Recover the amino acids of this structure.
């Protein structure tokens, strides 16, 4: 059978071709009616109908092949028009195989590529970001991704177009079964849109608060006749700096300012490392103490009021971390800048007395007190917990100290309490026991840490509503947020020093047992490295108070002597230390067969500071499947901000962190990279 006989018209075209036959039938019906009316007219009409029918059928069968030929020609011309339209389409468009190979692309797409589009090459060769990993997966029909090409921003949209049976019909291109689809790529130019968004974002307002940290101390250190001039110079520096940022500065109180700047100028402030802080420190007209600033900036794209609230949170955090730094809070999180100096200790004890009174009121209202420090407790956390335990017992409250693991350094003094008949057997409890003891009349007091994940039992913080925190470490982003009382003094030498002060105000004529006094004194001694670091007037006053209560200094020194194995381990750590960038020293403690390698690591870090030209020491030790970092410095480098970069924290010259792995060498490389980045970024000066 001829193939033409198999070709049939369909749809409207078929109906159009059948109209002559339909008209013939209508004319025959009309002819019958006329014939019934008049036979002569009917015969005449029949002749015309026969002629019409013959002509119609001849034209139908003759024009059918011509019409098919014209349709084929039109289809070819229409395909060419489509090809021209696609090639000149203003939207960049391309067709790809599932592996990213380009089959075809229009002229706009070729212009984006820039180097001349060649079919049968991979898209990732021209735009590396557009590789197979961003194509639609089996369950997806489309994906999109923003990329940059030729200094323009585009949104690349991929669509999966199924072509089932293509390989059976097409002899030129064979596509594997299961992958019978093309991937079409549309690229939308969003450069102007992104620029407009960036401009709008830059015009948004950032609220800020500036506090003079040590206003009273600075004023008292200068002659009275020059005090007004000193304040005027500080005012001028702040106003000029904000004015250069096209902002507004308003003095709220004698030592507080409110500022408003555009967000785009915040980037300039960040690039010059907030030079205002250094400019104010350089003001000297006879004042013995340089003025330091704390700056809190808040940004929220939703409401200006929320930006101000963020600024208040930021300035509070800056002050809690010791001042002399910038804290920026936004919806994305919190960033810290500066904080390179130790805050000057205040000689006044007003704050200690106020906090002691507040703590006393909260403790009186509860029947049971649970005290806990941080994991792998040291002498400071243990001594502070003992001091709070003493307060609770003095107030005739049932109290317990939560401790899970007694480290080697704590065991001698811990055993003193356990073996003494003066103290109850349930003085120390584990986390599980503490959770069973919790009821509605329980108060939890956390000492020597302000991070919930570092406490001995983090679950306690969710079980108890009344929580107090006493700590001398600088605050970070992760803090115990539901504390009703927070007493954090970054300039204090230790938490034991703070507890010793609280003890003097919490109750009249409180008398410590010798073991208790020794515990608290030991915490101060260890955290100050035998009163060599971060000691002030109040540190020695606290030590004197403990000495009056029977603290045995000789006994404390004796219990902290090392055994031979620990001494050898410390010597090994010091022996393999390496100098990095001429002023940092890094040592490692691997495979140490001792009970508390982290304690030995901290001791080794202190020893390494005795080497000339060393500004900071870092000791990394393996313990329980983790790598612990002990960081120490004297006064030139803030090791706390270094440790914060790797998830830790601490004090300005005594900090730590931990890596959740056993890759000691890899962690040392990470530490070195952090140091390099901070030096290049101006966060560390060497």
């Amino acid at each position: 059978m001829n193939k033409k006989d198999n070709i049939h018209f369909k749809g409207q075209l078929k109906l159009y071709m059948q109209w002559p036959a339909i008209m013939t039938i209508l004319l025959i019906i009309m002819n019958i009616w006329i014939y019934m009316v008049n036979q002569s007219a009917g015969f005449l009409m029949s002749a015309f109908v026969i002629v019409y029918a013959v002509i119609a059928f001849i034209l139908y069968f003759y024009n059918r092949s011509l019409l098919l030929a014209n349709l084929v020609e039109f289809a070819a011309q229409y395909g060419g028009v489509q090809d021209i339209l696609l090639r000149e389409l203003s939207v960049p468009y391309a067709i790809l195989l599932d592996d990213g190979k380009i089959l075809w692309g229009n002229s706009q797409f070729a212009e984006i590529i820039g180097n001349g589009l060649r079919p049968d090459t991979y898209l990732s060769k021209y735009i590396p970001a557009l590789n197979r990993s961003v194509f639609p997966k089996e369950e997806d029909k489309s994906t999109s991704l923003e990329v940059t090409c030729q200094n323009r921003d585009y949104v690349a949209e991929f669509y999966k177009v199924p072509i089932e049976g293509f390989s059976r019909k097409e002899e030129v291109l064979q596509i594997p079964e299961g992958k019978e689809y093309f991937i079409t790529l549309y690229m939308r130019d969003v450069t102007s849109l992104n620029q407009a968004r960036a401009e709008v974002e830059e015009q948004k307002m950032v609220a800020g608060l500036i506090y003079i940290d040590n206003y009273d101390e600075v004023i008292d250190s200068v002659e009275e006749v020059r005090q007004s001039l000193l304040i005027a110079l500080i005012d001028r520096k702040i106003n000029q700096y904000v004015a250069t940022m096209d902002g507004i500065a308003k003095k709220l109180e004698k030592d507080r300012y409110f500022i408003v700047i555009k967000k785009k100028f915040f980037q300039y402030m960040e690039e010059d490392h907030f030079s205002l802080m250094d400019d104010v420190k350089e003001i000297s007209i006879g004042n013995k103490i340089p003025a330091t600033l704390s700056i809190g900036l808040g940004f929220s794209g939703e409401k200006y009021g929320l930006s101000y609230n963020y600024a208040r949170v930021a300035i509070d955090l800056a002050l809690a971390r010791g001042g002399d730094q910038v804290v920026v809070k936004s919806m994305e999180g919190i960033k810290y800048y500066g904080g390179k100096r130790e805050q000057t200790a205040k000689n006044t004890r007003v704050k200690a007395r106020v906090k002691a009174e507040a703590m006393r009121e909260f403790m009186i209202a509860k029947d049971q007190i649970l005290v806990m420090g941080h994991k792998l407790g040291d002498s400071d956390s243990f001594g502070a917990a003992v001091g709070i335990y003493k307060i609770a017992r003095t107030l005739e409250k049932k109290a317990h100290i939560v401790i899970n693991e007694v480290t080697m350094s704590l065991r001698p003094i811990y055993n003193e309490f356990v073996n003494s008949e003066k103290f109850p057997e349930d003085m120390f409890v584990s986390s599980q026991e503490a959770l069973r003891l919790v009821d509605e009349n329980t108060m939890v007091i956390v000492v020597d840490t302000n991070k919930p994940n570092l406490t001995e039992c983090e679950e306690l913080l969710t079980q108890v509503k009344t929580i107090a925190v006493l700590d001398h470490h600088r605050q970070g982003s992760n803090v115990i947020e539901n504390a009703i009382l927070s007493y954090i003094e970054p300039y204090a030498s230790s938490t034991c020093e703070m507890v010793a002060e609280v003890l003097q105000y919490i109750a009249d004529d409180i008398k410590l047992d010798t073991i208790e006094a020794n515990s608290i004194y030991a915490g101060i001694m260890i955290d100050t490295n035998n009163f060599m670091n971060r000691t002030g007037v109040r540190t020695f006053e606290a030590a004197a108070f403990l000495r009056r209560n029977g603290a045995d200094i000789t006994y404390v020194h004796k219990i902290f002597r090392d055994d031979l194995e620990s001494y050898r381990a410390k010597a090994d750590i010091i022996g393999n230390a390496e100098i990095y960038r001429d002023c940092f020293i890094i040592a490692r403690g691997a495979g140490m067969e001792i009970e508390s390698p982290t304690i030995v690591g901290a001791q080794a870090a202190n020893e390494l500071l005795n080497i000339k030209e060393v500004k900071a020491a870092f000791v990394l030790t393996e313990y329980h499947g983790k790598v612990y970092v002990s960081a120490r410095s004297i006064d030139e480098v803030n090791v706390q901000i270094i440790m914060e970069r790797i998830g830790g924290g601490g004090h300005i010259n005594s900090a730590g962190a931990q890596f959740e792995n056993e890759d000691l060498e890899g962690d040392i490389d990470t530490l070195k990279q952090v140091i390099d980045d901070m030096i290049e970024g101006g966060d560390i000066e060497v």
